[in-house]
Amino acid sequence: MARRLALSAIALLALAACSKEAEKAPAAAPPEAKPAFVPSQTPPKRKPGLWEQRVSNGDFVQVSRICLDGATDEKLSWWGTQATKDICEKNITSKTTDGGWRFSSVCDMGSGGKTTTSGVAQGDFDAHYQIQAESSTVGAAAPQMNGTRKMTIDAAWQGPCPADMKGGDMQLPGGVKINLLDAMK
């Protein structure tokens, strides 16, 4: 049961926001001119501490808590790049004009299944952020995995991590605790 919950948690992270920063270099300015302002294309990092995440798809809401430190956020970013880098053929993240982040990915979920995910993230990533995503899976060996799903992740910073949680620890409904970094190995 714990293993299935761990895999579900990783799958939610992957489906929620599997993406990667679009790499763009600013154009070089002439030596005598000041360089033009180029907005950052580096997606924000979440504030270290305890985050409560409410994942909903319209039919259910699952509440979990995750303890993040800098190293964990590097490995488990809000858009899922690191957790899925070896299975995604496309990962793109770009800043929107209203300060949010757009992302899209195409990932091989194994057994011939392919998942396409796209969405938008908004928020300050210090106290709150929200992700709206839609994913579509085709060709999965388990028929229940195929189809299109919409999901919202609403995350709020709760404060420092409690003494009984370390970076990567996630507390799932029912009090089950897993470490996402260990589950990725």
UniProtKB/TrEMBL annotation:
Cross-referenced Pfam families: DUF3617 (PF12276)
First and last residue of the signal peptide: 1-22
Protein origin, superkingdom: Bacteria
Coiled-coil regions, chain positions: none
Residue spans crossing the bilayer: none
Keywords: Signal
Keyword presence, Signal: yes
Annotated region described as Disordered, given as residue ranges: 26-52
InterPro entries assigned: DUF3617 (IPR022061)
Name listed for the protein in its UniProt record: DUF3617 domain-containing protein
Organism: Phenylobacterium conjunctum
Organism taxonomic ancestry: Bacteria, Pseudomonadati, Pseudomonadota, Alphaproteobacteria, Caulobacterales
